[in-house]
Specification:
Blueprint (H helix, E strand, L loop, with lengths): L9 H4 L4 H5 E3 L6 H7 L8 E11 L2 E16 L6 E8 L11 H11 L6 E5 L4 E14 L3 E12 L7 E8 L4 E2 L10 E3 L10 H26 L5 H11 L8 H20 L10 H15 L5 H10 L1 H15 L1
Antiparallel strand pairs: 1-5, 2-3, 3-4, 5-6, 6-7, 7-8, 8-9, 8-10
Helix pairs in contact: 4-5, 6-7, 7-8, 8-10
């Protein structure tokens, strides 16, 4: 278990976000295409390959074609080898990563961002992401800085469209607060095809909706930082987020006890909580810090991928937020 009370404050200045762990820092690379090239997202040549199965019987081997689906594959630009992506319908429209460069450049320009910050691939290329840091920073209660990032996700497995969301990022602990606020729009899908013209006016209107979300999120954060949360209240929050039945197996109960202990140490002792300790905002940050940086994982890369894509992690953060803002 990582020591939470490290005498060196550089422990937290060295902490990297899930975006940096799963991808590549591309600040200063110029336009989106140059940034994606630096992150290894270009030259994939995504293409369809016919699916064929082999039926082995006593009479021999028979090749059987699948008329409904095809394999989506890509070229690994580092090795030149063909890599499997997914199985999709025959009518699936293939989009190369390079096709989104124009949209990303338009987003950077309209948002006033200095350029892309991080870019990378998750799940062996099935999903890609890029981030851009917005020039404005919200400061909760005048003491707790929260940066704002636009994050664009794309998929190559038919599960999702190109999507852009606004993600608050707490600087003190590198927590990603990708949370929904009632009546506010935090993310939008942007249609992009190779031959379509980029609708900059449409992008601008979508960004305005997300800026409204930033205002709504900041208002909730201000309320939370001024609202007290006792240690008993935090314990109740943890029990609600991770319920464990009395008849749970011994291993499950032991894991739950380790998790409770770790979360309570974050709540009571972590330097990242020093300026906000005892508030509902601190309760949210302790839960998020555990999920983003301490929940057991096979590797740092695996943890980063889980933070970026796991619906379980997103739902647990959202549940904590909803409980603490009720």
């Amino acid at each position: 278990m990582t020591d939470l009370v490290d005498s060196s404050t550089s422990l937290y200045s060295r902490r990297r976000s899930a975006w940096e762990l799963a991808g590549t820092a591309v600040a200063g690379r110029g336009d989106a295409l140059s940034a994606m090239r630096a992150a290894g997202l270009t030259g994939w040549n995504i293409r369809k390959v016919r699916q064929t199965g082999m039926d082995i019987t006593g009479d021999g081997v028979t090749a059987v074609d699948n008329p409904d689906q095809v394999m989506l594959v890509r070229t690994d630009p580092r090795t030149g080898r063909t890599r499997y992506l997914s199985s999709v319908g025959e009518g699936y429209g293939v989009k190369q990563n390079e096709d989104q460069a124009g949209v990303l450049d338009a987003l950077v320009a309209e948002a006033g961002a200095p350029g892309l910050a991080h870019a990378g691939a998750i799940d062996d290329g099935r999903r890609t992401f890029v981030t851009m840091k917005l020039p404005t920073t919200m400061t909760v209660a005048g003491t707790d800085p929260v940066d704002l990032y636009l994050v664009a996700f794309n998929s190559h497995d038919g599960t999702a469209a190109f999507r852009v969301g606004l993600v608050p990022f707490r600087v003190a602990c590198a927590n990603q607060l990708d949370l929904a606020v009632a009546t506010a729009v935090s993310s939008v899908a942007i249609r992009h095809t190779r031959n379509s013209r980029i609708d900059v006016a449409g992008i601008r209107s979508k960004l305005r909706l997300m800026y409204d979300y930033a205002d709504a999120f900041e208002a909730q954060a201000q309320r939370m930082i001024h609202a007290e949360l006792t240690t008993d209240g935090f314990r109740d929050l943890v029990e609600t987020l991770w319920p464990v039945g009395h008849n749970a197996p011994p291993r499950t109960r032991a894991n739950a006890e380790r998790r409770r202990t770790h979360l309570l140490r974050l709540w009571t002792d972590a330097p990242t909580q020093a300026s906000i300790r005892g508030s509902r905002w601190a309760g949210l940050q302790a839960v998020t810090e555990y999920l983003d940086h301490y929940q057991p994982a096979t590797s740092e890369a695996a943890r980063a991928g889980r933070v970026l894509t796991s619906t379980t992690v997103l739902r647990r953060k959202q549940h904590a937020f909803d409980l603490l803002t009720a």
